[in-house]
Design a protein that fits this description.
The protein is of the alpha+beta class and 417 residues long. It has four domains: 93 residues, conserved putative lor/sdh protein from methanococcus maripaludis s2 fold; 82 residues, Elongation Factor Tu (Ef-tu), domain 3, CATH 2.40.30; 64 residues, Beta Barrel (OB fold (Dihydrolipoamide Acetyltransferase, E2P)), CATH 2.40.50; 121 residues. The protein has four helices and 24 strands. The strands form five sheets. It has a six-stranded mixed β-sheet with strand order 1-24-20-19-23-2, with no helix packed on it. The protein has a six-stranded antiparallel beta barrel with strand order 4-13-16-15-14-17. Helix 2 runs antiparallel to helix 3. The chain is elongated and about 195 Å long. The two termini are 74 Å apart. The relative contact order is 0.20.
């Protein structure tokens, strides 16, 4: 007789083991799929530059490039244009103040100077004659006063004698009246002459001042005319090196044309062009440093020019302390300009990544150093060695700082041996 066989149920531990196996398998498959969806770039570790994030003093430095220029320069311009007839020195020569450099010739200027000289001399002679005529008038008036005073003195003596004679009836009344009338007449002439003398003195004083001013102006014009003619012979205004002098015999130079330049060579300055991004942060008194021929030197910002040309502005720097020897005009120097005092900050060494990401994100290595994951960060100031990290990184973390040009679209980087 058949007997029904009952199926024995599975133990609970087998079901538990089966469930764990299924979950682990699912999690493994999910991990594989998730890992496959992450864009990964594999690269040998030795091809990368890996830097460590550190806490330190951030020096607010910017690299600048400057050129050596003379501290003082004087430009030579043709005051009066003309043809070059003689050149006395060569470009690059050292000249002394007042030394002749070049002789120009201008026939029209010569004729103009001669005509002006003749006209001015004639006007000066006319003014001199007018001044002399005032002096002659003064002398004539004084002579008239002297004569009148003498005549009055003589008449007063006769009048005194006539008073005694007429008392004794020794002369007639008519003779006495003639003497008295003549004396009164001469006194009126004297009063008139003295009044005229005062008027002439006032007029002469004003007119002589005008004549003196006119004569001074004419002399200045004559001097200018002579100076213009003499300026055809160009002299060195200062002592120094004639660094630019493109002048050839027979060449014609127009009025105001640049002839050359004389540099004072015992003192130099540095002229640098700086990106306009720093225009509000650069000020006189800031220090810069540079290395030349194995020695360290310092300079200080002396002047900041406000004009911005093609995205840069210009500054003048002067040497501090020891000035380098054997420098040449136009020589280029690579310098570091300090914009502020050192500040304690989180620092990341500068690298090619900054050009690709703008400092907005980086690849940070995990603890094992096998993978580098993309992470957003925020940076602040930068110098030629470090960038200041504001957010996103911690001290001691390792960051890939080489170029990201090939991994900009990746989510992580796998480092291989």
């Amino acid at each position: 007789m058949d007997r029904k066989i009952e199926k024995t149920p599975r133990p609970f531990w087998q079901w538990s083991l089966l469930g764990i196996t299924i979950i682990c398998s699912g999690w493994f498959v999910y991990g594989l799929l998730a890992d496959a969806s992450i864009r990964t770039y594999r690269v040998p570790k030795e091809q990368l530059i890996i830097s460590r994030v550190e806490q330190g003093a951030f020096e607010d430095l910017i690299p600048i490039r400057g050129s050596i220029q003379p501290f003082d320069s004087v430009f030579l311009d043709a005051v009066i244009g003309g043809a070059v007839v003689e050149v006395y020195v060569e470009e690059g020569a050292f000249v002394e103040a007042g030394q002749p450099l070049v002789q120009l010739s201008n026939t029209q200027t010569r004729l103009t100077a001669a005509t002006a000289d003749a006209n001015t001399t004639e006007q000066l002679n006319n003014l001199t004659n007018i001044s002399n005529s005032f002096e002659m008038t003064k002398l004539n008036t004084e002579r008239q006063i002297i004569d009148t005073e003498y005549r009055i003195t003589e008449l007063e003596r006769r009048m005194h004698r006539s008073e005694k004679l007429i008392a004794g009836s020794l002369i007639s009344q008519e003779e006495f009246d003639v003497i008295a009338d003549e004396l009164a007449y001469q006194k009126k002439l004297l009063a008139n002459a003295m009044a005229r003398q005062e008027i002439e003195k006032h007029i002469r004083g004003e007119r002589l001042l005008q004549i003196d001013a006119q004569m001074n102006m004419l002399r200045e014009n004559l001097e200018i005319s002579q100076t213009s003619f003499e300026s055809l012979l160009v002299h060195a205004p200062i002592s120094g090196q004639l660094t630019s002098f493109p002048v050839e015999i027979g060449e014609s130079k127009s009025t105001g044309q640049r002839l050359g330049q004389i540099d004072v060579i015992n003192q130099y300055k540095i002229v640098a062009q700086i990106d306009e991004f720093y225009v509000s942060r650069v000020a006189p008194g800031q220090e810069a440093s540079f290395t030349l021929a194995g020695s360290d030197f310092n300079a200080m910002v002396d002047k900041v020019y406000p004009e911005i040309t093609e995205g840069t502005f210009e500054v003048d720097l002067v040497f501090e302390g020891l000035q380098p020897q054997n420098v040449r005009r136009g020589q280029t120097l690579q310098m570091e300009l300090t914009l502020g005092n050192p500040v304690e900050s989180l620092l990341l060494p500068l690298g090619g990544f900054i050009q690709d990401t703008g400092g907005n994100w980086v690849f940070v290595l995990d603890e094992n150093g096998e993978f580098a994951h993309r992470r957003d960060i925020r940076v602040g100031r930068r110098n030629n060695r470090y960038v200041e990290v504001r957010e996103g990184l911690q001290p001691g973390e390792s960051v890939i700082t080489s170029s990201y040009s090939q991994v900009e679209d990746m989510d992580r980087i796998q480092l291989t041996d």
